[in-house]
Amino acid sequence: MHSDQHASDLSGPAIPGLYTSHPADGFVRVRGARENNLRNVDVDVPRDAIVAFTGVSGSGKSSLAFGTIYAEAQRRYFESVAPYARRLIQQGHNPKVEMITGLPPAVALQQRRGTPSSRSTVGTVTTLSNSLRMLFSRAGSYPDGASQLDSDAFSPNTAAGACPECHGLGIAHTVTESSLVPDTSLSIRDGAIAAWPGAWQGKNLRDILTHLGHDVDTPWRKLPKRTATGSSSPRNSPSSR
Asked: Do 188 and 223 form a contact (C-beta atoms < 8 A)?
């Protein structure tokens, strides 16, 4: 992509109030962009408007939007952040560009999909939670006599901040006899333990119980109540709950 052009013809209707600070001419001016396959691209992008970069695959759209403009906005933001806080924020790279002026704060919605897990939130995926944790740690109000908490204490994904009941997942998984054995009229051989697999894996588990001397043919509700010892865990014993 090698051009010397204005992007004003790509702009849509202005969005009033999107930013509170406006340069005199209302443009983000990029000069000498050389990121990836860009070759000294100069472009003026209107602010407070919806602007689209179009072109064939490999023409440098992402290199200009993400690799240059957004990367430079992030670099300038990181310069204002304390060194301690920088370690909590995923940092990008310094773009290859001669100059960018009129650049406002920027947020990027990446083109690729993330790989969220059960611990993922909007904050963790966008890394905004790191800044929020730092805000609570440094600017939050603490009870009288309480010491300041590290930012990790405000994260559900660390040992310092995770709830001891749900371990940061938001849902506490508890096991009861009724959840393990929903139908007490069944024997172990007939599938009383709902979580056990079928086929040969279930047969192996039943064979182990038989070898240990447990009755797998009596209905669960008729099994004797015994105190669990060793590998034995009969009905209503603490280890079976």
From this structure: no
pLDDT in tens, 5-51: 444 343 333 333 333 344 557 899 999 999 998 999 999 999 988 99
**Beta-ladder partners of 187:** 219
Residue 129 has pLDDT above 80, yes or no: yes
State the span(s) of the chain assigned CATH 3.40.50.300.
4-101
Per CATH, the architecture of 4-101 is what?
3-Layer(aba) Sandwich (3.40)
Tell me, what amino acid is at 172?
A
177-240: in CATH 1.10.8.280: yes
- The reported pTM is 0.40
